[in-house]
């Protein structure tokens, strides 16, 4: 099955978490996707709330990865992805807000990465940190490939592409013949997975996927998705920013 990138349906929504609303801080999540190259590429990045410029770090890595990966040879993706992340890091070194103009200030731009690159019927997740990705292979949403969150020794600790040892935390997960993909920031992982992250919460994901697949009006679909992520119950369960990218291949 060959997938035409222009026929892929995509919807991305980001909502500010309750914590950042109370602190009057902008949403630190960022997402981007491209359909005009040889490959379909989508990336979600969560800027660390504890960093001064986490939102900038998230934006730059999304822009850099989508731009550089869309026309690569898919077979070279595992080599091209770390090279592209390295270029994003070099942009942060030169950024006007980098006070030292060196890698020593990269923690000011700390952000996670979870992304996907697809070519024909093949896909590859690439991942640093506590976001998550899912690729579903059957209409019952029972068979799936997951790239799960990775935390550090403490619950609130994760990994960022701005760390010195970021290559040690870069993970790849390959899959084939998926019909639906979800990318998400960590504000949604507890909605989408069981507590041990071994199974998925179909009661949350499947209704979203079914509705978005049927809704032809993109404005209505985006409003519905944003409203779902912004409900009082969602804010109560997780006060962090929430980003969800839905992809129908």
Polypeptide structure, described:
It is a single chain. The protein has helices spanning 18-22, 54-69, 77-94, 166-169, 189-192, 202-214, 218-229, 232-237; strands spanning 9-15, 29-34, 40-46, 113-119, 122-128, 132-136, 144-147, 171-176, 180-184, 242-248. With 249 residues, it is of the alpha+beta class. It has one domain: PPM-type phosphatase domain (Phosphatase 2c, domain 1, 4-Layer Sandwich). It has a 5-stranded antiparallel sheet with strand order 1-10-9-6-7, with helices on one face. It has a 5-stranded antiparallel sheet with strand order 2-3-4-5-8. A hairpin with a 7-residue loop joins β6 (132-136) and β7. α2 (54-69) crosses α3 (77-94). The longest helix has 18 residues, at 77-94.
Q: What's this model, at a glance?
A:
31% of the residues lie in helices and 24% in strands. It has 249 residues and is α+β, with helices and mostly antiparallel strands. The protein has a single domain, classed as Phosphatase 2c, domain 1 (4-Layer Sandwich).
